[in-house]
UniProtKB/TrEMBL annotation, chain A:
<dbReference type="GO" id="GO:0030246">
    <property type="term" value="F:carbohydrate binding"/>
</dbReference>
<dbReference type="Pfam" id="PF13407">
    <property type="entry name" value="Peripla_BP_4"/>
</dbReference>
<protein>
    <submittedName>
        <fullName>Sugar ABC transporter substrate-binding protein</fullName>
    </submittedName>
</protein>
<comment type="similarity">
    <text>Belongs to the bacterial solute-binding protein 2 family.</text>
</comment>
<dbReference type="InterPro" id="IPR028082">
    <property type="entry name" value="Peripla_BP_I"/>
</dbReference>
<feature type="domain" description="Periplasmic binding protein">
    <location>
        <begin position="66"/>
        <end position="320"/>
    </location>
</feature>
<dbReference type="GO" id="GO:0030313">
    <property type="term" value="C:cell envelope"/>
</dbReference>
<feature type="signal peptide">
    <location>
        <begin position="1"/>
        <end position="23"/>
    </location>
</feature>
<dbReference type="InterPro" id="IPR025997">
    <property type="entry name" value="SBP_2_dom"/>
</dbReference>
<keyword id="KW-0732">Signal</keyword>
Length: 359, 332, 734
């Protein structure tokens, strides 16, 4: 049933795309005749009707594709939800390919999208290498590539996401505040990374290093990769908390994952002593703050990120610049969420609803 | 013939059962760790140790039931995880706790029956059937039933939380539940007709069938029992973490379960061992895991060590209870 | 001289069944419905050897066609090319798994080996500073080492392959995780620009990715090794039967070890391509790959029971799974759906593989016999005193026994010019009895199969129909020569019927052509009675022309044509059809040439051989008698089918073969007389008779003797052993 719908929708969309392509050819010819260098070259005195027409024409029937590392988490669902809403409102088609946390399948998905040539490709890089060559290929094939939250070694037209280096600095600074010199603690800190080669992990670690280098009293007792997996985080932390019962802080790079670490600490009865730091702000963060599992988290405006991607895609599509020639970085605001402000509206998101307030 | 028997009996005098050997190893490890490792021999650590292995122990009891019957349930963690997750997801709705638990139990029994059917009637070797069915169960649940990878347990479901976090007379609830499950399983295996049939099935399935034991329906029952016991373990896990992460199904928990069972002395050739073996195996693995933790090993190093021990246990099991290597069927 | 073999005239053929006088349309339609035999098509299809690889291939084509039709962009050149690079990696791993499965093992650690080799190669290339070719060689070595770990444990420590490799999966993955933890972050910022590395990742030969070209090379080499080399044979032998392989002197342990090393090596090769293509030093690489690979290999038709499979099957399976995954991905189906589909496919494939391997023979056997309706006319009374032409008498009771206890199953008997008596036996001999009272017995020729029909040609060669072998000739000196054992194949049916399965009886036409019947093309001699239970037109009439040495099918689809006899005028052929209890006349010369008509029908028994009598009449043997119960059963095909399914074979209802008689019929189709042996004490199952020198010689398929009675009315010189119309014979021989 679902596939039939999808198919029907797809064929309608294709038909529409074909029509629009035809129309686009004719208008393209017009604009060239007008001597404009691409869309950005619209003169300032262009009529609002023409400006509107240009905006509509450069978006309508275009396709945006999104390849996360895997759906099924509030983070990726929220992105997909926001993008779907934004792109479809702009008359664009939006497709998601779900590699289900499998690097090879992610590469495959991107590869097949390159063959299909959508107009915008949004990728959520597993690690800094795996899509590097493919992003390059995609841009060569005429696809605008926007990277989200986890950057690749190959920088593309745009990056949307948290300022991960700054995020690392800020959390490290906060940790130093509660565990550093002058506090009556062991100064021991555990770090639970995502994938070790993920752009997010590498950047956050870089930011953290800057801070911790200045504070040699902080002892990083464990730095392990839980690969964004809550169970792994739980297992790792359960071990670490036994090895270091006097741990001061546990810092995990993602709330979904770090929740496992927090529960492990709670199981060990140390949740009052060990401060659990994390980032991201899905509803689990607010719940965990409420339940005093987390100490604090940094949100990076995930719903806005989705909307930002749409905005940047629109800009790229209208700019007339060839893919691969822009380097936009859009760092979304970092919002500290702690036990005092978690119940304010819109602090957390759940990937399903707008304006969520966790109570 | 008489000589052979006499020899066997004479051997028996010197030979300890595998459980006894394991318990001796556990005791000596225990002593060694207590002496060498700081913070091992403390009440906290020991309770913690026990609590942390109790859900593993419960799952191992479940696995023991099928292994004694010369089976294998690699889908144990999957069916446990899916049924627990569904039960918890239902608890997020209006449904009452007993109803949700009953539905979860129903699902796990159904899954067990499917496994049993594939093995007994379609005659797919247990390893293949359960390897694939585990993935199938997980996949179907993820695509059609479950909302996400992680289901949170609502805080008002006191009973399930108690299963994981409660305390009975100063003893954490998971340990109590493990003890109860072990006792019930022991009673089932050693005092009931079904239990004896399960041993007969594992010892010699052909002979069991010839003596009139309904081996095929029995297989269904074995896998259903295993599933039901596994479901208890799943609830304990969910209760202690306050939710359930279905990604655990992809993890290496099933190997820990296998490790406990094989190391404990429940031979894969079937018909041997019992709940006591599971207890011995759980104790050994618990002490070992704890020791490795205190030795500052990370999870990957632990995985490697556990894998090596399991490998050694498999080879040893094969030496102690050899099978006919020449005519063995794929997946045996 | 008529050189051409007569062709059956179109539209001149009576229906291949007994047509009642007042047949209604409903009955006609019932017959028509019963003629269609889907079950038979399936049974014959699955009997084919090419069916096993054909099913996976069909599946592959099906998957390809399905996604090409439903998924835009799937069949595009770019997509297929990029898929081919991914497919190459998967196929290489599948190939390794296939070798292990063929050797009777299984290797679940392929995913971890793949991931570990990927990591190792990337580390070697990026961090060690070794030249890329050396790093690649080291990567292969690592793969081989990992494989040898599995192999040693399975082969020398005799551990269970399934669990062993399941555990090494965990161990290798643990090592991979450790490497990932400690080193992979350092690889993240290194860009390798070595041309060799680039070539491995993105190089193309004639537009095709280098990895795919390598795969084709590996497939060809693998095929040669597996099917043509000693090692390949050893691997197959060990997988098929370890015990037999050991007894044959094969070093089983070493062969097993080698197969696991192959698996590791191929995983490493695949990992090198993967590493150079994506440069992803992730700990997740290869997670869950074992499921994909296992499913692919089984889907390709490599049996889990070992000893069976080719590299091509592994490739077909890998391609199927690869295209399936790609198609689902393009259809926007979630990743976990693919996993689920794989698991379901695995269960079904393993179930089918095992069930099919176990029950194939049984299933074919159960569905092979496929009964149809056979109607009979009213059964004539044969009881003594009934006054019918077939009234029983005791004219055979006094028959003289020749060779009593010395012959076994003389289906046909014949005498030569010197009056010596020949017969075939079950042992595959032709015996010759000579002397005054045929007391001298000798083995005239050893043929090998059970000789059925006998006839002498112009040069006094004995032409013999041999069951399971074909048409043979024996010179007067006793030398055996094959005349023919095959005919033109009927391309309209699946079953290859070019071989002669049950040549039954023959006669030689005046022009020298040998006409012979093949009773059934579906059953062997031992199962000839099953053809009766089936009742389908499975037989045919063939003609061998000694002048050209060619054999042709003259009439196909006859219900059990048994006796063949050239008429006295040499212009037609009489064909006795056992299960239809009728005799056909086929005109082979004259104005009616090519016409087939019913000569006599509704005999009370089952017909066997026909021979000419000395007085212009014909002798017909009835090898068994019809009974009302069996006539009824033949009218009820579903009843017979159920009978075959539900009760053991020795309790089935069979046509009665306990006693029969010899009938003499005139050229006009009237019964002239019958010769009975009541109770069948001496001559049960009479299959042939031959008149010679005033005597009638009687043979029987189950008999231990040849009978002889004196014919009162016969001319003592005439013989039915000779050929019809001798005057023409001389010219035909040339």
């Amino acid at each position: 049933m679902r596939t039939v719908h999808r198919k029907a929708r797809r064929s309608v969309a294709f038909a529409a795309a074909a029509l629009i392509a035809l129309a686009g050819c004719s208008t393209g010819g017009d604009s060239n005749a007008g001597g404009n260098d691409g869309g950005e070259g619209l003169p300032p005195d262009v009529s609002s009707a023409k400006l509107r027409q240009h905006a509509i024409d450069s978006l309508k029937g275009k396709t945006a594709a999104f390849v996360p590392v895997g759906l099924g988490t509030p983070l990726t669902e929220e992105w997909a939800r926001q993008m779907k809403r934004g792109f479809e409102a702009a008359g664009m088609k939006f497709v998601v390919r779900d590699p289900n946390w499998d690097t090879a399948r992610q590469a495959e998905a991107v590869q097949s999208l390159i063959n299909e040539k959508p107009d915008v490709l949004v990728v959520h890089n597993f690690d800094v290498q795996v899509l590097a060559k493919l992003i390059q290929q995609a841009e060569k094939a005429g696809i605008y590539v926007i990277q989200i939250n986890m950057v690749s070694n190959y920088k593309s037209d745009a990056f949307v996401g948290a300022d991960t280096i700054e995020l690392g600095r800020r959390i490290a600074t906060d940790i130093v505040k509660v565990c550093g010199k002058g506090t009556d603690t062991s100064h021991k800190v555990q770090i639970v990374q995502g994938d070790a080669t993920s752009g997010f992990t590498l950047d956050v670690m870089a930011g953290a290093k800057e801070v911790f280098d200045k504070h040699p009293e902080i002892k990083i007792v464990s730095t392990q990769a839980a690969n964004w997996d809550r169970t792994k985080a739980h297992d790792i932390t359960a071990t670490v908390i036994q090895q270091h019962p006097d741990l001061c802080a546990s810092w995990g790079f993602w709330d979904q994952m770090q929740y496992g670490a927090a529960t492990a600490i709670k199981e060990a009865g140390k949740i009052d002593q060990v401060k659990v730091f994390t980032s991201d702000h899905s509803s689990i963060t607010c719940e965990a703050l409420r339940d005093k599992l987390f100490y604090q988290s940094y949100g990076y405006s995930v719903p806005t990120q989705g909307a930002d991607i749409v905005a940047i895609a629109k800009q790229l599509l209208q700019s007339g610049r060839p893919p691969g020639s822009s380097r936009i970085a859009d760092y979304t605001p970092l919002v500290k969420i702690d036990r005092t402000n978690w119940d304010e509206p819109n602090m957390c998101y759940d990937g399903k609803t707008d304006g969520l307030t966790v109570s | 013939m008489g000589a052979v028997l006499a020899k066997a009996r004479a051997d028996g005098r010197f030979r300890l059962s595998q459980e006894q050997i394991i318990l001796i190893v556990v005791a000596s490890l225990f002593v060694v760790f207590s002496v060498l490792l700081d913070g091992f021999f403390t009440a906290d650590n020991l309770l913690n140790l026990l609590r942390s292995v109790s859900s593993l122990g419960i799952l191992s009891v479940a696995m023991a039931v099928v292994v004694i019957a010369r089976g294998m349930d690699l889908s144990l963690v999957a069916s446990m995880g899916v049924s627990t997750a569904i039960a918890i997801q239902l608890m997020r709705s209006e449904l009452s706790t007993p109803e949700a638990l009953l539905i979860g139990l129903g699902i796990v029994l159904l899954l067990g029956a499917i496994n049993g059917f594939l093995i007994a009637f379609v005659e797919i070797p247990a390893l293949f059937a359960t390897l694939a069915s585990g993935l199938l169960i997980y996949g179907v649940a993820r695509t059609l039933v479950l909302d996400g990878l992680i289901v949170e347990l609502p805080p008002d479901r006191e009973f399930v939380r108690w299963l994981g976090q409660g305390v009975v007379f100063g003893i954490p609830a998971p340990i109590v539940i493990f003890a109860v499950v072990a006792l019930v399983a022991h009673f089932l295996l050693s005092r009931t007709r079904t239990g004896r049939f399960i041993y007969a099935h594992g010892d010699n399935a052909g002979a069991a069938a010839l003596t009139g034991i309904p081996v095929r329906p029995l297989t269904l029952i074995e896998y259903m029992i295993a599933g039901a016991i596994g479901f208890c373990g799943g609830l304990v896990m969910a209760g202690s973490v306050g939710g359930f992460n279905t990604q655990i199904i992809d993890g290496s928990l099933i190997y820990d379960v296998l490790l406990v069972v094989v190391v404990g002395g429940i031979s894969l050739v079937g018909g041997r061992g019992g709940v006591l073996s599971v207890l011995a195996g759980t104790a050994l693995i618990g002490v070992m895991l704890n020791g490795m933790t205190i030795l500052n090993m990370n999870t990957h190093e632990k995985d490697i060590v556990k894998g090596l021990i399991l490998l050694a246990a498999l080879v040893l099991d094969n030496r102690l209870h050899p099978r006919d290597e020449e005519t063995v069927r794929q997946g045996d | 001289m008529t050189a051409t073999v007569p062709r059956l005239r179109l539209g001149s053929r009576p229906p291949e069944r007994n047509v009642p006088a007042n047949e209604t349309l409903v009955i006609k339609l019932r017959h028509l419905r019963r003629r269609i035999a889907l079950q038979q098509v399936f049974a014959e299809l699955f009997e084919k050897r090419w069916m096993e690889p054909a099913i996976p291939l069909a599946l592959l084509i099906g998957v390809f066609v399905f996604f090409s039709a439903t998924t835009p962009g799937f069949a595009s050149q770019e997509n297929l090319l990029s898929t081919s690079a991914e497919l190459a990696e998967l196929s290489l791993v599948c190939l390794g798994m296939a070798v292990v499965v063929i050797s009777g093992g299984i290797d679940l650690s392929v995913g971890s080996m793949f991931g570990l080799c990927n990591m190792a190669v990337i580390l070697l290339v990026t961090l060690s500073g070794l030249p890329v070719p050396v790093a690649i060689a080291l990567g292969l070595l690592i793969g081989a080492l990992l494989g040898s770990v599995n192999g040693s444990i399975v082969a020398y420590l005799k551990a269970r392959p399934f669990l062993t490799t399941l555990v090494t999966l965990i161990i290798f993955r643990g090592v991979l995780n450790l490497l990932d933890l400690n080193y992979s972050a350092q690889t993240a910022t290194v860009f390798v620009t070595d041309p060799v590395w680039e070539w491995f990742g993105t190089g193309k030969v004639a537009g095709i990715p280098f990895s795919f070209v390598t795969l084709i090379g590996v497939l060809i080499v693998g095929h040669i090794v597996l099917s043509r080399s000693r090692l390949g044979w050893h691997i197959t032998a060990v997988g098929a039967s370890r015990r037999a392989a050991r007894h044959a002197g094969i070093r089983v342990e070493r062969v097993l070890l080698i197969s696991y090393v192959f698996s590791g090596l191929l995983c490493a090769l695949a990992a090198i391509f993967y590493a150079s293509r994506l440069s992803s030093a992730s700990a997740r690489v290869g997670e869950g790959m074992e499921l994909t690979v296992l499913t692919a290999v089984i889907l390709g038709g490599i049996s889990l029971s070992g000893g069976k499979g080719t590299v091509w099957r592994a490739f077909i399976g890998a391609a199927t799974i690869s295209l399936l995954g790609k198609g689902l991905l393009l259809m926007n189906v979630g990743g976990e759906v693919f996993q689920t589909v794989l698991a379901a496919v695995l269960i079904v494939a393993v179930g089918l593989d095992l069930k099919w391997g176990k029950n194939r023979g049984k299933a074919i056997q159960k569905t092979y016999v496929n009964p149809t309706i056979v109607e009979y006319g009213e059964l004539q009374d044969t009881r003594p005193g009934s006054g019918t032409p077939f009234e029983q008498n005791d004219r055979l009771v006094g028959a003289e026994a020749i060779g009593l206890g010395q012959v076994e199953g003389p289906e046909d008997v014949i005498l030569d010019k010197q009056g010596r008596l020949y017969c075939g036996t079950r042992q595959g001999w032709i015996l010759r009895f000579s002397g005054e009272n045929f007391e001298h017995r000798e083995i005239f020729a050893r043929i090998g199969g059970h000789p059925l029909g006998l006839a002498f040609d112009a040069e006094e060669n004995l032409v013999v129909c041999v069951a399971g072998m074909g048409l043979y000739a024996v010179t007067p000196q006793g030398e055996v020569r094959k005349l023919t054992d095959e005919t033109n194949r009927n391309w309209l049916q699946l079953r290859d019927d070019s071989r002669l399965r049950l040549a039954d009886d023959l006669d030689i036409a005046p022009d020298g052509k040998i006409y012979f019947s093949e009773a059934t093309t579906r059953f062997e001699m031992a199962d000839w009675i099953l053809d009766g239970i089936e009742g389908r037109p499975n037989g045919r009439l063939l003609c061998y022309d000694p002048a050209t040495g060619k054999t042709r099918t003259v009439i196909r689809n006859l219900v059990f044509p048994n006796g063949v006899c050239v008429s006295h005028d040499g212009k037609s052929l009489l064909i006795a059809q056992t299960w239809l209890c009728r005799i056909l006349r086929f005109h082979i010369d004259g104005p009616d040439k090519g016409r087939l008509e019913v000569f006599m029908e509704n005999f009370p028994g089952y017909l066997d051989n026909i021979n000419r009598a000395s007085d212009g009449a014909y002798w017909v043997a009835l090898n068994g008698m019809r009974s009302p119960a069996y006539d009824l059963a033949m009218r009820m095909p579903t009843f017979r089918r159920r009978m075959m399914k539900r009760i053991p074979r020795d309790e089935w209802l069979y046509p009665s073969m306990n006693h029969g008689c010899v009938v003499k019929v005139s050229e006009q189709g009237e019964v002239l007389g019958t010769w009975w042996d009541p109770g069948g004490t001496a001559h049960a199952t009479i299959t042939s008779m031959r008149e010679h020198g005033g005597y009638l010689y009687i043979g029987g398929l189950e008999n231990n003797r040849i009978g002889r009675i004196k014919l009162d009315e016969a001319e003592p010189t005439a013989s039915s052993s000779g050929r019809a119309v001798r005057s023409v014979a001389g010219s035909a021989a040339n």
